[in-house]
Design a protein that fits this description.
alpha+beta, Rossmann fold, 2 domains, five-stranded mixed β-sheet, four-stranded antiparallel β-sheet, 9 strands, 34% strand, globular, serine-type endopeptidase activity
Length: 190
């Protein structure tokens, strides 16, 4: 068999594997797990093409999503958040519902990279806020060390301030929001 990988900066990798019997499978690499998403071959009943059309439609929506950056003033700590907004117009006057996805760590960072959860939210009309609170990596040593001795205070304040700023600056509905995270992000959510 053979394996072909097709990648783009705005899409996740698409990995195709050809089995010795001539059947091609579309394999998606989600973290360290491989999941067969579609198979095309001589006995294909057409469902693989249907799955590929659905995947193409979802990727088109995601490719048209808006990416915005919200930054707090230096006097307020200078934290920033990446916000991903759906391509379609928000329903009604309230704006998009949103989730605030808080990274763990605390010495980690939210990155501008493909994420299956983000795709699920955005393709269903939900905006996602990714805060990089003080203590996050990638913003310099002073920003990283500022959190020392202030865990549960400064990081919480940054996430709240970034969420409020995103609501004010972007088309988000303040009445339809939620927050979640794992590890330190779960601690901050609680």
């Amino acid at each position: 068999g053979s394996v072909v990988q097709c990648s783009s900066l705005r899409r996740p990798p698409s990995v195709w594997a050809r089995h010795p019997d001539g059947i091609w499978s579309c394999v998606l690499d989600v973290g360290s797990m491989l999941e067969e998403a579609a198979t095309m071959g001589p006995d294909d009943d057409g469902s693989a093409h249907s799955k590929l059309r659905m995947a193409h439609s979802a990727m088109h929506q995601l490719a048209n999503a808006r990416f915005e950056r919200v930054t707090l003033p230096e006097a307020a700590g200078g934290a920033e958040a990446l916000c991903v907004l759906p391509a379609k117009v928000a329903d009604g006057d309230g704006g998009f519902p949103f989730v605030c996805k808080i990274h763990g760590g605390p010495h980690a960072a939210s990155l501008d990279a493909f994420n299956v959860e983000t795709a699920l939210f955005v393709n269903n009309g939900v905006a996602v806020i990714f805060p990089n609170y003080r203590g996050s990596l990638g913003f310099g040593e002073e920003f990283l060390e500022a959190l020392l001795g202030h865990v549960g205070e400064m990081d919480v304040a940054d996430c709240v301030a970034l969420t409020r700023a995103a609501i004010e600056q972007l088309d988000l509905d303040r009445t339809r929001g939620a927050a979640y995270g794992g590890s330190h992000g779960g601690f901050l959510t609680a």
